[in-house]
Amino acid sequence: MSICYRIPCPSSITALGRYGKPSGRKDSAGEIRTMIVAIPTAGKDLDSPIDNRFGRAVGFIIYDMNTGEYKHQVNNLDELALEGAGIQAARNLVRAGISAVITGHCGPRAFHIFSSAGVEIYSGIKGPASAAVRRLAQGSLTPVQAPDVEEHW
User: Residue 45 burial by CB count (10 A; 0-12/13-18/19+): exposed, middle or buried?
Assistant: First the structure.
């Protein structure tokens, strides 16, 4: 079940995005498309801490960098999957249309799914989801180029 929330945006925010910066990537036609970010969390709102284990997170905050809207998506794989929870969660998020993921850690299988789909991966991030979103908008997060943990850590 998903619940949508909207964060009030100050009137000074431009159409470029919540923090006044372009909030997406250019598509093949050169148009900026909205950046949708998935963040594995231990709770259901932006104050929730980022979960270190991507595939075993309680759920994901799906955050629209342009509008400031977000929803919580329950991760049904956290307890049910004996193995492969990360790759299954990554596939589900890619199908949902995300363009970036901010996570505590990203293993090799999930990393492969995301990078093959053109999803930017920001790994090794700690703290509340709201702080990570703010850092991404400010340009202080750098996408990783390789997984940061081994399989089944």
Answer: middle
Whether 108 contacts 56, CB under 8 Å: no
Size of the chain, expressed as the number of residues it contains: 153
Which residue in the block uniquely carries the two structure tokens 């309680």?
Answer: 58
- The dihedral built from the CA positions of residue 151, 53, 80 and 153, taken in this order, carries a sign that is positive
To which residue do tokens 């945006």 refer? Answer: 9
Q: What phi and psi, each to the nearest 5 degrees, are found at residue 91?
A: -60, -45
Q: In tens digits, what is the pLDDT along the chain, a chain of 153 residues?
A: 444 444 433 322 223 344 334 445 455 555 556 799 999 999 999 999 999 888 889 899 999 999 999 999 998 764 555 567 888 899 999 999 999 999 999 999 999 999 999 999 999 999 999 999 999 999 999 999 999 777 655
The order of strands in the sheet holding 2-6 is 2-6, 69-74, 59-64, 36-41, 100-102, 120-122
d(CA 49, CA 104): 10
CA–CA–CA angle 94, 103, 92 (5° rounding):
20
Structure tokens at 24: 């997406």
